[in-house]
Write a structure and sequence with these properties.
The chain has one domain. The protein is mostly helical. The chain has 4 helices and no strands. It is globular and about 35 Å long. The N and C termini lie close together (11 Å). Helix 1 packs across helix 2 and helix 2 packs across helix 3.
């Protein structure tokens, strides 16, 4: 198992985690039991990267997708590519 130790990779992992939590709340309606921290963290992350964060979860999710795709992060990798590389 590999560890994420590079500061850029840690930041990327943080952004992806925030995005996934927000996506879960938008798509399934599930909410975290300790307040609305996902939306708050997403808005803080967007503002840190120069975006003016929107007010609702759905719009913030769209902005997070734009932020991450601007860095070519969300390029889908076919499942068989993972298996070829020995990662599952």
């Amino acid at each position: 198992m590999d560890a994420i130790t590079d500061p850029e990779d840690i930041e990327l992992f943080r952004l992806l985690t925030i995005r996934q939590g927000l996506k879960l709340e938008v798509e399934s309606g599930l909410v975290h039991s300790r307040g609305n921290l996902v939306l708050q963290r997403a808005r803080e992350a967007l503002e840190m990267y120069g975006y003016k964060a929107k007010r609702n979860k759905k719009d913030v999710l769209v902005q997070m997708n734009k932020l991450l795709s601007a860095g070519n992060v969300l390029i889908p990798v076919p499942q068989n590519e993972w298996i070829k590389n020995g990662q599952q």
